[in-house]
Amino acid sequence: MSETPAKPPARAAKSKELPEHLKAYRHVWVFIELEHGRVHSVSWELLGEARKLADTLKVDVAGVVLGPAGEGTDQAVAEAFHYGADQVYLVEDPLLTNYRTDPFTKALTDLVNTHKPEILMLGASTLGRDLAGALATTLATGLTADCTELAIDGTSRALAATRPTFGGSLLCTIMTLAARPQMATVRPRVMSMPEPDRSRAGPVIRERLDMVEEDIVTKVLDFIPDADTNQAQLAFADIVVAGGLGLQRPENVQLVKDLAEVLGAEYGCSRPLIQKGWMTADRQIGQTGKTIRPRLYIAAGISGAIQHRVGSEGADRILAINTDPNAPIFDFAHHGIVGDALEILPALTEAFRARLA
Ligand code: FAD
């Protein structure tokens, strides 16, 4: 990742003019993350964002699909058009069956060097984070990870990628001025999901993977799907109920779980509860946990620190329960109850149970 330092280096400060040899780079690309026949939904969120950037730049949006033929690539290509791609680059090869850094990096590096996109975006998933770092290194370009906002700088036409920094206490905007493509990763659910247009279609540009198995150092011996069906699906939940240190004792976590169960919601927490071992790490909401975008977020006994806020303020409606009327969470909650969560959570559970019975 390259972050713009407080004092820009002399070269960047002198001119925002793009070097001549990089002016051939055009269009906005999104890596469509296809794994075992399924596309990660962050790819569609990024296509929605790419559309806005491309419209500002007056260029096209392209999707990049990598995978073995017949394992969801056709469907991924079709859907990429539905979600806003004008064209799709497709590399089909059995070497792309299970994700490995080497062949995926090689396929994308070759595509970029041949077709020269000015912006390339990937989801900040486990796969996307690995691939983005490797790719930025081979392409010798700048990568801004975990962006929360993307825009085009009016004067330089550069991608202005905003992300939290200094432990989330500041937001910084980073621009890659002297290299192309400009790369960014964005976490799932940070950008909103565009409406698909099922009538859209477009050209598919096929390329080959110039690699053989012997070139790849990593060998996949077996693929074992995650057996833990209890893994929290916070990022995709419609309703989330969460608790913070205001719950006071580990047994009070049950009050959050009870309300979540009645509402058919997912439950989560602030980071200190993970550190205390009151909930598992997959339930942490915030900058170093999950970003949520539910229709309703109920936060009980959570102060609303900036690191928690960046992961939860995308909720359509936020109801905060806190004994302190000056708690920062009331700055961004839509509804607030000043009171004891240990009394209010069970009262809400009872009220909803009676109403929904
Ligand atoms: P507190 O800040 O202690 O707040 C407890 C709140 O409960 C208070 O507002 C209090 O008024 C209220 N309260 C007390 N009793 C009751 C009661 N009976 N009923 C109702 N309200 C009550 N935090 C995250 O959440 N997610 C992250 O991803 C995250 N990442 C971080 C990354 C870094 C690098 C750092 C440095 C910190 C991170 N944090 C994160 C921690 C964050 O800064 C806060 O410390 C944390 O969010 C506070 O958790 P809390 O609100 O539960 O606790």
Automatic annotation (TrEMBL):
Co-factor binding comment: Binds 1 FAD per dimer.
Keyword flag Electron transport: yes
GO annotation (BP), single: fatty acid beta-oxidation using acyl-CoA dehydrogenase
Any matching Pfam family: ETF_alpha
The keyword Transcription regulation appears for this protein: no
Top-level taxonomic group: Bacteria
Cofactor(s) annotated in UniProt: FAD
SMART domains from the UniProt entry: ETF
Stretches assigned to the Electron transfer flavoprotein alpha/beta-subunit N-terminal domain: 28-220
Entry-linked Gene3D superfamilies: HUPs, TPP-binding domain
InterPro entries: DHS-like_NAD/FAD-binding_dom, ETF_a/b_N, ETF_a/FixB, ETF_alpha_N, ETF_asu_C, ETF_asu_C_CS, Rossmann-like_a/b/a_fold
Keywords: Electron transport, FAD, Flavoprotein, Transport
PANTHER family, per the entry: ELECTRON TRANSFER FLAVOPROTEIN ALPHA, ELECTRON TRANSFER FLAVOPROTEIN SUBUNIT ALPHA, MITOCHONDRIAL
Family of this protein: Belongs to the ETF alpha-subunit/FixB family.
Name this polypeptide is given: Electron transfer flavoprotein alpha subunit
Natural source organism: Roseospira visakhapatnamensis
